[in-house]
């Protein structure tokens, strides 16, 4: 029987050419699998038909938008997942859900191998292949760009020679990956890290310099998940979409960083994640109000480790799962409303309201009605500083 390869198909030039390229290099039949994670652009049926026209034996499309939002973006929100304190894991969270669908399709269509269009220099190859090994230990992986020498020039050549129904003329200067959680732009002009991003780089956000009048949103959270915006119930997908639009038009969520890739390369990345950044800012503040101090401090460490694991392609790892359980436990009391003002590229919290708040007005106030017995602070400070005081006395005795 002919071997079958499941290919992660985007509908673009490289993966369209990869269909025939893999077939010729391996003799296998190619099953194209496209997964909708809210990347926008062409509709799935068009993409499916193109895969077939490019020679795929079968083409399969999955609308994973709600699943992606609920099961991948929401955990990232609950973790306040910002790699290097800046990058909201846009591509990193999408790879595991795509992987899951690839492995499901491989089983369904009796494929022995999974193929993806990543290069050998990035994180995404690691995320796909570690995920595939974990979910489908019997599956092999190939990456035509990396393993079968499919360069851009060869792809254009191949598409033209074989009359593939895909444009080869439109040359995008950037490598772009996008989904509902955000958009990543790299390569080209941006590789000179002194070059400021030009206007054409952005798509999810408008220029914050000329933003419209301020926009105020009230976001209701339940257990760390946004469940309503301005009183209207929303699904996780809707919450992200609405905030993408509203925060995006205010220019919120533009990020320009040099980032440490897992493979040891530093790379320049431009991100736009208006919805993700607005939601994270709101969520973080609601945590400040509702999570006890020691739990909050420890959660920050856990969230950072979680973020690194996810960035490094360890979504399906045991440690990531254990940290999930911790994070989920911390979210039980993260309920309430945040008022978020968005303007000129910034999202600022201006109000909080919560039934599970730990903020106690009577403890905090400096006005009448103070219930805090200030006389107790003296003894507390005496004991709190004791160990340093003892150590310092020793050092002074020794003349250090
Ligand atoms: N550097 C980011 C990451 O590793 C974004 C990768 C985007 N991928 C792409 N093909 N442009 O998560």
Mean pLDDT: 96
CATH homologous group name of the largest domain: Argininosuccinate synthetase, chain A, domain 2
Bound molecules: arginine
Helix content: 40-55%
Shape: elongated
CATH class assignment of the largest domain? Alpha Beta
Radius of gyration: 25 Å
Bin the strand percentage. 15-25%
Could you name the CATH topology of the largest domain? Argininosuccinate synthetase, chain A, domain 2
Query: What is the CATH architecture term of the largest domain?
Result: Alpha-Beta Complex
Q: Count up the domains.
A: 3
Low-confidence stretches: none
Distance between the termini: 80 Å
Strand order of the largest sheet: 3-2-1-4-5
What count of helical segments does DSSP give? 14
* Number of E-type strands: 14
What pattern of helices and strands is seen along the backbone? Answer: EHEHEHHEHEHHEEEEEHEEHHHEEHHH
Q: Structural class from helices and strands?
A: alpha/beta
How would you describe the overall organization of this protein?
It is a single chain. The protein is α/β, with parallel strands linked by helices. It has three domains: 4-173, HUPs (Rossmann fold, 3-Layer(aba) Sandwich), CATH 3.40.50.620; 178-353, Alpha-Beta Complex (Argininosuccinate synthetase, chain A, domain 2); 363-397, Single alpha-helices involved in coiled-coils or other helix-helix interfaces (Up-down Bundle). It contains 14 helices and 14 strands. It has helices spanning 13-26, 44-53, 65-78, 90-108, 124-135, 144-147, 152-161, 236-249, 274-290, 293-311, 318-330, 361-364, 376-384, 386-397; strands spanning 4-8, 29-36, 58-63, 113-115, 140-142, 175-179, 182-186, 215-222, 225-229, 232-233, 254-260, 266-272, 336-343, 346-353. It has a five-stranded parallel beta sheet, with helices on both faces. Strand 1, helix 1 (13-26) and strand 2 form a beta-alpha-beta unit. Helix 1 crosses helix 7, helix 3 packs across helix 4 (90-108) and helix 10 packs antiparallel against helix 11. The termini are far apart. The model has no long low-confidence stretch (mean pLDDT 96). The structure holds arginine (ARG). Residues 91-92, 123-124, 175-177, 184, 186, 259, 269 line the site of arginine.
């Amino acid at each position: 029987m002919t071997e079958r390869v499941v290919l992660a198909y985007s509908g673009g030039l490289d993966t369209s050419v990869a269909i025939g390229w893999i077939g010729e290099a391996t003799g296998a039949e190619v099953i194209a699998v496209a997964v909708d994670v809210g990347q926008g652009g062409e509709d799935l049926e068009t993409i499916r038909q193109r895969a077939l026209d490019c020679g795929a034996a079968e083409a399969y499309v999955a609308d994973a938008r709600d699943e992606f939002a609920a099961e991948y973006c929401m955990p990232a929100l609950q973790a306040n997942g910002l790699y290097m304190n800046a990058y909201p894991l846009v591509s990193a969270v999408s790879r595991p859900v795509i992987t899951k669908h690839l492995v499901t399709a491989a089983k369904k269509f009796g494929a022995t191998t999974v193929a993806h269009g990543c290069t050998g220099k990035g994180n995404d190859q690691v995320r796909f292949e570690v995920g595939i090994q974990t979910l489908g230990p019997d599956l092999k992986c190939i990456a035509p760009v990396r393993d079968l020498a499919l360069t851009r020039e060869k792809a254009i050549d191949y598409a033209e020679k074989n009359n593939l129904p895909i444009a080869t003329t439109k040359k995008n200067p950037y490598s772009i990956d996008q989904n509902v959680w955000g958009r990543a732009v790299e390569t080209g002009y941006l590789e000179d890290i002194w070059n400021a991003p030009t206007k054409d780089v952005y798509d999810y956000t408008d220029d914050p310099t000329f933003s419209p009048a301020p926009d105020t949103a009230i976001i209701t959270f339940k257990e760390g998940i946004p469940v309503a915006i301005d009183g209207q119930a929303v699904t996780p997908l809707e919450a992200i979409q609405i905030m993408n639009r509203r925060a995006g038009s205010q220019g919120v969520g533009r990020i320009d960083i040099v980032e440490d890739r897992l493979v040891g390369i530093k790379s320049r990345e431009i991100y736009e994640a208006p919805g993700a950044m607005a939601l994270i800012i709101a969520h973080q503040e609601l945590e400040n109000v509702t999570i006890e101090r020691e739990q909050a401090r420890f959660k920050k460490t856990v969230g950072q480790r979680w973020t690194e694991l996810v960035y490094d392609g360890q979504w399906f790892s045991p440690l990531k799962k254990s940290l999930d359980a911790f994070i989920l436990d911390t979210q039980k009391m993260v309920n309430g409303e945040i008022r978020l003002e968005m303007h000129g590229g910034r999202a600022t919290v201006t109000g909080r309201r919560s039934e599970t708040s730990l903020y106690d007005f009577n403890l905090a106030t400096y006005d009448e009605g103070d219930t805090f017995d200030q006389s107790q602070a003296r003894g507390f400070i005496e004991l709190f500083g004791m160990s340093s005081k003892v150590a310092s006395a020793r050092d002074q005795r020794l003349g250090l």
